[in-house]
Amino acid sequence: MEPPSALKLYFLSCLSILLLSSSLAQAESVKYCDKRGDYAVKVSGVEISPNPVAKGKPATFKISAATGKAISGGKLVIDVKYFGVYVHEETRNLCEEVSCPVASGKFVLSHTQTLPSYTPPGSYTLTMKMEDEKNEQLTCISFNFKIGFGSSVSDF
Prior knowledge:
The structure is a single chain. By secondary structure, the chain is α+β, with helices and mostly antiparallel strands. The protein has one domain: Sandwich (Immunoglobulin-like), CATH 2.60.40. It has two helices and nine strands; from the N terminus they run αββββββαβββ. The strands form two sheets. It has a five-stranded antiparallel β-sheet with strand order 2-9-8-5-6. The chain has a four-stranded antiparallel β-sheet with strand order 1-3-4-7. The longest helix is centred in the first third of the chain and has 21 residues, at 4-24. It is globular. The model is unreliable at 1-26 and 151-156 (pLDDT under 50).
């Protein structure tokens, strides 16, 4: 039988590994832009990896969603705020983020992007509107994410 101190050290090591791995791909809470809106696309969660996002390194945003009707195409309009101030806006082709046509049922939007090394650390809010090929809004969500304070050699 191991001495209690060795067992305690083993337990703490396992716990720290578990906590570290769970923070790498943590699900973020999602808010709909219109709480009373009846969106055709329902979003169940967002997973960000790594979390917090590391500037100058790739970050992946996976958005789990479901739809009751097939979607043949459209666009994503993404706005990013830093402490409430707009800092970035882009429009992406929906079919570049998910395989089109999107069949009725569950699907995952996945987008990987590398943020510039000069991106300020802190809390950000991302708002994403999904529209079909007729510019009809399918969903609108927002969620928060963080960019870490760590620096790398490329920051200098």
